[in-house]
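in:
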């Protein structure tokens, strides 16, 4: 059984384990959520929801228009998405010299947008002092959604949208497959049409189409404004009235915007025939879906319960289907709820081991759904262990999990979800309504929901089979592609005032975390964050790097899977909490999340997880894990990533990867030795973040739970720093017929503990902005992303984009030239100021949630950063100079970059070699 699938099955087995002992304190506890809310409908029809949350030092603004891709006219699919893109190119009526996007960037806002079937939503996050400015920009978008947008703007965005479509269809096939499934489930309905359009429909869009669509649907009576901030709700409503002005109005709209998405037609027998599609995927995939009521039915909690119950029941079916053998049907699977206004979907997706098992797996999914209907969903094993109360116990666990998730959501109110709830129910207070809905709908086992909606004869199915040639023909890049020299950046450079930059970034206060080292060597950090009743416990263990002689590649994964199943998972489930394990190259982390009222249970479960590491399942899972690794070796995406890492960290454990042959040599003794040696307190840091002070009682609880964890006797093996690549290395991974070339440029950087973090982040920000403008203005890409890949002893700056194949070599050269220019000469003061402000903006909101603070403290432990690292950053950012940014660029491995290109090798290799690049070709097996 595979790693991720085994985790899914063990999640259901955890339910079994918790029945063994009655622990009365293992019940979900939660304190009231501190917030106030206000709601107003102005005469124009604009609805405004305000959440007053005084504990946070930020605002969020969401504007949700009740019109999405389901409003696209037939033949104009993608129009709603195009309007979303174009609205950022609009010029505010008071300032025609800059786009709304540039105006949002100036004060350091974090912003984005999304087009859904039923709405188009825009959101902005910033410091409270800038709330008026954010509202003014959204008011400008509402008044003139496409003000100042030109035909050139449309031409550029059309090319970007086509590039985005192609990138998603090839590098994110899951999104495309879900669209195919929706087309089958909503035949002859707007939900069944491609929400992002097709290249043909996008190319056919005109500026008049966009203006007509926006003027009809971007109207006050069709908009919901959701605001959270620490300011008084009454003051915020007054500010909205001032800023939105005529959009507030003094009379009702003459012609209200009516909802136009109809209910889907009844399901016909011919709609249920299985659909088979060919796609450039590595493994065959099965999708099974059932239509469920839409938002207006107000049955979301019952739908969420049913989706999770289906997950558990299907996992049990897979276990029983093996009949005691090592037979494998599924590599991985998941179940999701797709909520929509007119009707939703419960969707099961399974990656198959063999294509010939598709029909069998579909039948297992339908059988699992039938058992939910038959009120016997846990007959597959849990019922025998839990008795007749099994379904009610599962319902309680799901209910409490949803309630805790709701607590966590309050830290960052999801304006899109709040707007959708208001549209569907007329209830403005989503936070309270959602909690009430969960409690009321999950008092009892909601099997009637499955009985009505998850019927065998109502299931839609899709089978996706691998076919690397099943891609559209390649389109040439637009003629407008420039020689990668964008127009001047017309966004005003932020002021050079160091105090303003320092205030924007804001010191997170993590240096104040209380610190102790227990007698067994365990380092403990306790921090208070906010006033929400949430807690997160992270146990970070620094392990010996995987991939060297001491720890063969693949052993840590096998060891953790073989040890799964301790009681910690069950106890967490009993209180609606979650427990997850993640594994890095040289660390592993166990995370327990729940309410702070249950903090003691989180601590005890984490301690039990640490102490109870032993080989339980090696004989049952080792063969399956070996086969899974073998299948991953044949996966093109996996081969590409491994080729990049191997070239980036030559001859070093960071570049190693497990092989089926290597896993075959591992034995149970290897697993036991690794668990015994590595998961020890002297190698670990415990991070506890909640709304509680580090009181004597809390310290006593920590020492009580973790003091008995015995110290190890094997020191952590030292690891040398990885060598730089000897020279520039270009790796070409062949994807025959691909319509896009995925380009990844990786430059080695000093490790986190030894580099100027602010300067490195600034050069990354400058590169990202400049290269994104080049690629978007050229119309060959939907943009570029840059991230920093950190290990304890080495790091890399990695830029990624997808472009038209015939400009791949030019794109690589542009990225390399931009990096070289940074190292050769300092940025202008204006560019440096802009980069500095981008870094401050990105830094600002990383730490103001429980999860954000816990992540930062755990990251510092893994990377061996000083205790004041995060709190020192605002001052470091504020004093950034062009020279420091240049020094950071010079510290990159300029001239020794590793370039990965994934695409059609037949067309790409001649182009790359003609541009002077020495190319190494790699197939799916990494050779």
């Amino acid at each position: 059984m595979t790693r991720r699938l085994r985790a899914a099955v063990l999640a259901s087995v955890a339910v079994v384990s918790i029945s063994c002992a009655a622990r009365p304190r293992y019940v979900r506890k939660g304190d009231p959520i501190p917030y106030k809310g206000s709601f107003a409908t102005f005469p124009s029809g604009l609805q405004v929801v305000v959440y007053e949350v005084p504990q946070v030092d930020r605002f969020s603004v969401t504007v949700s228009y009740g019109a999405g891709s389901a409003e696209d006219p037939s033949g104009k699919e993608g129009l709603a998405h195009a309007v979303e893109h174009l609205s950022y190119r609009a010029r505010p009526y008071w300032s025609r010299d800059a786009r709304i996007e540039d105006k949002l960037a100036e004060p350091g806002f974090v912003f984005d947008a999304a087009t859904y079937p039923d709405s188009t939503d825009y959101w902005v996050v910033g410091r409270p002092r800038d709330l008026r400015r954010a509202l003014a920009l959204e008011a400008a978008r509402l008044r003139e959604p496409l003000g100042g947008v030109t035909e050139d703007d449309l031409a550029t965005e059309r090319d970007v949208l086509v590039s985005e479509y192609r990138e998603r269809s090839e590098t994110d096939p899951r999104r495309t497959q879900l669209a195919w499934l929706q087309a089958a489930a909503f035949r002859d309905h707007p939900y069944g049409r491609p929400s992002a359009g097709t290249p043909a429909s996008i190319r056919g869009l005109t500026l008049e189409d966009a203006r007509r669509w926006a003027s009809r649907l971007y109207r006050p009576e069709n908009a919901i404004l959701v605001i959270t901030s620490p300011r008084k709700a009454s003051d915020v409503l007054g500010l909205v009235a001032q800023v939105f002005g005529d959009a507030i109005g003094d009379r009702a709209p003459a012609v209200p915007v009516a909802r136009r998405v109809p209910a889907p037609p009844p399901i016909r027998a011919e709609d249920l025939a299985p659909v088979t599609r060919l796609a450039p995927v590595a493994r065959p995939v099965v999708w099974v879906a059932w239509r469920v009521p839409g938002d207006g039915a107000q049955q979301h909690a019952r739908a969420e319960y049913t989706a999770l119950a289906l997950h558990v029941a299907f996992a049990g079916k897979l276990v029983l289907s093996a009949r005691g053998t090592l037979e494998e049907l599924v590599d991985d699977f998941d179940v999701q709820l797709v909520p929509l206004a007119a009707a939703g979907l419960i969707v099961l997706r399974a990656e198959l081991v063999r294509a010939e098992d598709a029909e069998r797996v579909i039948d297992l999914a339908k059988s699992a759904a039938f058992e939910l209907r038959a009120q016997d969903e846990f007959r597959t094993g849990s019922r025998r262990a839990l008795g007749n109360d099994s379904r009610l116990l599962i319902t309680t666990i799901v209910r409490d999990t949803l309630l805790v998730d709701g607590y966590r959501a309050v830290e960052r109110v999801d304006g899109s979800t709040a707007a959708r709830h208001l549209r569907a129910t007329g209830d403005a207070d989503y936070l309270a309504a959602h909690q009430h809905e969960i409690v009321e709908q999950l008092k009892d086992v909601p099997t009637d929901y499955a009985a009505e909606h998850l019927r065998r004869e109502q299931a839609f199915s899709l089978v996706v089979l691998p076919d690397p040639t099943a891609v559209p023909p390649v389109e040439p890049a637009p003629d407008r592609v420039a020689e990668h020299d964008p127009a001047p950046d017309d966004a005003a450079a932020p002021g050079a005032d160091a105090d303003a930059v320092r205030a924007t970034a804001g010191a997170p206060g993590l240096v104040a975390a209380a610190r102790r080292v227990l007698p067994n060597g365990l380092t403990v950090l306790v921090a208070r964050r906010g006033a929400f009743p949430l807690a997160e416990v992270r146990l970070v263990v620094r392990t010996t790097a995987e991939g060297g002689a001491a720890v063969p590649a693949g052993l840590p994964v096998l060891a953790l899977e073989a040890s799964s199943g301790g009681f910690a998972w069950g106890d967490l489930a009993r209180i609606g909490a979650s427990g997850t394990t993640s594994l890095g190259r040289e660390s592993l982390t166990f995370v327990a999340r729940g309410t702070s009222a249950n903090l003691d249970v989180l601590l005890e479960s984490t301690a039990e997880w640490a102490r109870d590491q032993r080989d339980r399942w090696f004989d049952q899972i080792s063969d399956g894990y070996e086969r899974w690794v073998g299948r991953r070796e044949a996966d093109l995406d996996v081969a590409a990533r491994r080729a990049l890492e191997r070239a980036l960290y030559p001859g070093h454990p960071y570049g190693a990867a497990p092989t089926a042959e290597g896993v075959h040599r591992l034995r149970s003794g290897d697993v036991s030795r690794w668990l015994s040696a590595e998961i020890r307190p002297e190698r670990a840091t415990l991070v506890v973040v909640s709304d509680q002070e580090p009181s004597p009682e809390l310290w006593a609880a920590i020492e009580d739970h973790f003091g008995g964890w015995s110290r190890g006797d094997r020191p952590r093996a030292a690891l040398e720093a990885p060598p730089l690549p000897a020279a520039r290395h270009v790796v070409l991974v062949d994807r025959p017929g691909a319509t896009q070339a995925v380009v990844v440029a990786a430059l080695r950087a000093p490790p986190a503990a030894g580099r100027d973090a602010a300067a490195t982040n600034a050069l990354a920000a400058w590169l990202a902005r400049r290269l994104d403008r080049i690629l978007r203005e050229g119309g060959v890409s939907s943009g570029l992303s840059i991230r920093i890949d950190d290990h304890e002893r080495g790091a890399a700056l990695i830029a990624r984009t997808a472009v038209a194949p015939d400009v791949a070599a030019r794109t690589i050269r542009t990225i390399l030239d931009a990096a070289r220019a940074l190292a050769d000469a300092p940025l202008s003061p204006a560019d440096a100021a802009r980069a500095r402000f981008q870094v401050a903006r990105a830094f600002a909101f990383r730490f103001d949630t429980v999860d954000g603070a816990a992540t930062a403290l755990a990251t510092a432990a893994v990377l061996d950063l000083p205790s004041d690292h995060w709190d020192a950053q605002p001052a470091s950012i504020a004093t950034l100079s062009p020279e420091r940014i240049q020094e950071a660029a010079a510290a990159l491995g300029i001239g020794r970059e590793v370039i990965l290109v994934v695409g059609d090798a037949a067309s790409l290799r001649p182009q790359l070699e003609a541009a002077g690049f020495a190319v190494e070709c790699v197939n799916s097996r990494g050779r």
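note: The chain is about 40% helix and 15% strand.
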